Amino acid sequence: MSSDAPIPQPLEHSSSQRGAGANISNADASEGEFRPALSRDSSQHVIGHAGILANGDQVNREYTNGTMNGATDDRVSQHTVDIDTQDNNRLHRDRKPPLPITVKFVDLRNTVKIEGKTTWSLKHPFKFRRQPEIQKEILHGVTGSVMPGETLAIMGPSGSGKTTLLNLLGGRNHHGITGQSTYNDIPYNKALKRRMGFVTQDDVLFAHLTVRETLVYAALLRLPTASFTRAQKVARADETIVELGLERCRDTVIGGPFFRGVSGGERKRVCIGHEILVDPSLLFLDEPTSGLDSTTALRIIQVIRNIAKAGRTVLTTIHQPSSRLFYMFDKLILLSQGNSIYFGNAKEAPAYFSSIGLTPFIAMNPADFILDLASGNLNDISIPPALEKSSTMQIAGSDKPLLAAPSPSEVHSYLVQRFEQELLPKEKSKLLSLGSTKEELKLGVTAKREWSTSWMDQFSVLMIRGLKERRHEYLSYLRFVQVFFISVIVGCLWWRSDRETEANVADQMGLIFFIAIFWGMFPLFTAIFTFPQERAMLNKERASDLYRLSSYFMARTLGDLPLDLVMPTIFVLIVYFMTNLHLSAAAFFLTLLTVYINVVVSQGLGFMIGAVLMEVKQATTLASIVMLSFILTGGFFVQHIPVWMKWLKYISFNYYNYRLLTKIQYSGSEQYDCNTSTGCKSLSTASVFHGMSLAGGGIDAMALLIMVVGYRFLAYFALQRLNVRH
Questions:
Q1: Are 225 and 200 in contact (CB under 8 A)?
Q2: What stretch of H or E contains 443?
Q3: Burial of residue 196, with CB atoms counted within 10 A of its CB: 0-12 exposed, 13-18 middle, 19 or more buried
Q4: In this structure, are strands 151-155 and 313-317 parallel, antiparallel, or unpaired?
Q5: Angle at 231 between CA 229 and CA 236, to 5 degrees
Q6: How far apart are CA 577 and CA 555, in angstroms?
Q7: Measured at the alpha carbon of residue 568, what is the angle toward residues 463 and 574, in degrees to the nearest 5?
Q8: d(CA 454, CA 224)
Q9: Are 683 and 666 in contact (CB under 8 A)?
């Protein structure tokens, strides 16, 4: 059955309604749909909606209770949503009720700046023109309110400002705002973030974690340690799984675009569960039913209604709900091009538009009807007299005027004008009559902002979560195969090399330089993806104050090190002995340690580039340029670098790594060419070293350690620059 298919039940119409042409056959009369007048007089539109709205309300009440008048048991089982309200009440019985928060907003406006484009023409190839910056107003004075226990639906066509309004009220946008929005009569402050839950339109979840792991880690991060033990936090996550009906998929991975996991509806419920773990007073949802089938969407909205009934304030955008979903909302804001054209009881919206002369001629989903109005589309809808006059055309040579459909802009202007004349003054007077909020409720939204968990707890949870999420990458057999075969190929090319002649020493120097550049590029081009790929998750979790940026950064950069060092170890173990490098324990372990440092330095550079640009293509391009510059100035290919480019080698980690590996493998006391007529020569005099001193190495090691710390500091400051913490 489709989402718009109502439950058939005869309607009772008064004789005056039938006489006025409001006669609707039982076959077309369906509860939950808006009933139009099927006959129309050019000068008068007679509509009878009182019974229709009452029946719609009856459907809503009966559907919520899981029973329907006149329906058989089979129909009940077909339409009833599998939500165990008694179990939910039992789960909430021992919980402290959330702080009731009333949201009010008056004349809310939002303006964004659009940068001007730079133009260029062939006529003036050396002249660039930049268009001036444009300011565009997205919201035009939106007013409304929503109380604890209520669900406010924000509707409108695409581009009408639904998500913008939700982000403003949810504290996700603080730029270009005028007007007033209050929470228990207190303006937005950062302490409110702990009492808010925000479910974004995109399901931002870790694909390789199971449903239970996702909610358990969220509980460990979000629930305050002062009030919950670790066992209680895990129990809260399990309760949320039961509350949202996720028991069957609790041990199923979330899934991603290339491998299967939970369904779309289950993924959306996991996102909701992620936010309601802390019993938020305010819950914001951005189009929670997008892309879901009617049955799944119905269950999601039922979950949202149950959340609101527990004393929470719920605001959600929704694009095009079915008639059953539409009647589940308590309040409705209808937006059109950033203007409000309706605010009030959702069930009374069709009656309001009928009162201003807009009525459908056919049976229609009320949500479709009001969205057509918001889009300026009056097909199959009566035209009010005011718009008939404005859209009358005169045909040449004829005395009869032609009635043309009004343009969308005319419909928009008419709807905005009528809203500002009839509904807006009433709503503003209601807001004034609400009175002042109690002091204890005001104090609840201005309490001191404190972290729920300690830095060390955040670090440990994030590290464990990161290892579980990325274990498939580091334990992938493809990476092992890749490193193993490269190691074998390198070992075969330099098989049992020696240092008997200068030519042989030169070959070994090529091997050392290859080791330096390979373990400089391999980790670099892996690390640059780290922060750009996790940006959405970082923004989401930091906006909810889940953790400090420093704890995330340390867990992300240190947590992967043990797994990152497995591959270099395999490589060195294979290559070192196959190529017959300096066979001593000190030389072997120093070589391994130097390769480790090289990996950590190149990772830090990748972190920095990725954090600065936060865009994979740009980061990859910049990393290629930087790495090639470092390789060319690393001391192997070019010895006589121009003076004005010499500074490049001093910031190249390849330069220091190559020198350090060389000094580990060779010493000035070694000799070569002993079998020639000229006799033995000291390695320190070999031209292949180009005058490099084979003693020391402390300066090179110190330079690499400075880069280990410096690149990571720059990456951390680049993440701070994102200002993801509002």
A1: no
A2: helix 439-444
A3: buried
A4: parallel
A5: 95
A6: 35
A7: 145
A8: 9
A9: yes
d(C-alpha 663, C-alpha 567), whole Å: 24
Whether the Cβ atoms of residue 714 and residue 608 lie closer than 8 Å to each other:
yes
Q: What is the pLDDT of residue 58?
A: 37
Residues 315 and 146 sit within 8 Å (Cβ to Cβ): yes
Q: What share of the chain is helix, strand, coil (3-state, %, to 5)?
A: 50, 15, 35
Which H/E stretch holds residue 207? none
Q: Which two tokens stand for residue 308?
A: 């609101």
Residue type, 368: D
- Least Cα distance to 200 among 262, 283, 288, 119 occurs for 288
What is the amino acid identity at position 306? N
Angstrom distance (rounded) from CA 11 to CA 644: 89
φ, ψ dihedrals at 256, nearest 5°: -145, -170
CB 611 within 8 A of CB 715: yes
Q: Say whether 227 sits in a helix, a strand or coil.
A: coil
CA distance linking residue 682 with residue 680, whole number of Å: 7
C-alpha 384: how far from chain center: 43
- Residue for token pair 């489709």: 2
pLDDT tens per residue, range 200-239: 999 999 999 999 999 999 999 999 999 999 999 999 999 9
As a whole number of angstroms, the distance between CA 586 and CA 451 comes to 47
Please enumerate in sequence order all residues whose Cβ is within 8 A of that of 303, keeping only pairs 6 or more positions apart, or say none: 83, 244, 245, 269, 272
pTM: 0.80
Give the residue carrying structure tokens 């949500």. 367
Residue with tokens 């629930």: 223
Distance CA 219, CA 277 (A): 6
Identify how many contiguous H helices and E strands the chain contains and give both numbers: 29, 18
Angle between helices 85-93 and 230-243 (to 10 degrees): 160
Give me Rg for the CA atoms of the chain.
Answer: 34
Contact between 313 and 353 under an 8 Å Cβ cutoff? The reply is no
Note the pLDDT tens digit of each residue in 32-82. 444 444 433 333 333 333 333 333 333 333 333 333 333 333 333 333 333
Side chain identity at 299, as an amino acid letter? R
Instruction: Please classify residue 137 by burial: count the beta carbons closer than 10 Å to its beta carbon, then call 0-12 exposed, 13-18 middle and 19+ buried.
Output: middle
- Which of 560, 637, 724 minimizes the C-alpha distance to 173? 724
**Angle (CA) 414 416 422, round 5°:** 95
- Region of residue 337 (phi > 0: left; psi between -120 and 50: alpha; otherwise: beta): left
Strand duo 151-155 + 129-130: pairing: unpaired
